[in-house]
Amino acid sequence: MKPLVVIPARGGSKGVPGKNWKELNGKPLIHYTIEAARAVFEDSCICVSTDSEKIKKVSESTGLNVPFLRPDYLATDNAGTYEVLLHAINYYEQKSYFPNVIVLLQPTSPFRNSNHIKEALKLYNNNYDMVVSVKETKSNPYYVLFEENDEGWLEKSKKGDFTRRQDCPKVWEYNGAIYVINVEELKKVSLANLKKVKKYVMDDISSHDIDNNLDWKFAEVIASDIFL
Predict the structure, then answer these.
(1) Is residue 146 part of a domain?
(2) Which helix (DSSP H) or strand (DSSP E) does residue 122 occupy?
(3) Which of 55, 79, 142, 193 lies at a 20 to 30 A Cα distance from 13?
(4) Prediction pTM value
(5) DSSP secondary structure, 77-106, as one string
(6) What is the pLDDT of residues 34-64, one digit of tens each?
């Protein structure tokens, strides 16, 4: 396996301004992901992809080199993760490093640790398009999710005659923490269109993702308990 670990970190967060360098339990948020990655991989294949001088500086305070700032076309609100990954792959290929696996670690998952990464990697093989971390969703479409029909009435999103939530089929939700991706397939199609995808299950606390201020408040509570 020739991995490239990509940690995508935009400077223009809307939900929690400056969240990637904001301190959680006394440590910048992005440091949690950098530390988890460095416990598994060599620094030479870890890439923080950012458009922000501030994030670059905060990341490099760990001793990790940040090799570039994203070009302008990847610094907009509309820039997607897929394009960011392709840019990183191309950058390293131009430096004569040809990864066959991308490990995407989003810095908004501070409670994903090195053991989770190792376990996800063990599940991956070259016949897969992707191994992705998930949690069991509480928003089960057989039970609590509804859509509005043409007449304006609510109908269950997924048909099924279930009277108890625990009788419904399990449904999995991407938690955003870990993606182990086949580079050859990624060059053909976007993340959303990968077909041969296997799940790696994580618990709710390890899956916690920070998208808004309420998420941040919950993260502070979790961090104060975990890192006592």
Answers:
(1) no
(2) helix 114-123
(3) 193
(4) 0.92
(5) TT--HHHHHHHHHHHHHHTT---SEEEE--
(6) 999 999 999 999 999 999 999 999 999 999 9
Considering the domain boundaries, does residue 117 fall inside one?
Answer: yes
Q: Give the closest residue to 206 by CA, choosing from 183, 188, 187, 223.
A: 223
Residue pLDDT, tens place only, 87-128: 999 999 999 999 999 999 999 999 999 999 999 999 999 999
Q: How far apart are CA 41 and CA 39, in angstroms?
A: 6
Q: Is residue 144 part of a domain?
A: no
CATH of residue 60's domain is 3.90.550.10
In the block, tokens 């041969």 appear at: 196
What is the domain count for the chain? 1
Range of the domain at 17: 3-135+171-223
The C-alpha atoms of residue 179 and residue 117 are separated, in whole angstroms, by 9
Q: Which two tokens stand for residue 55?
A: 């994030």
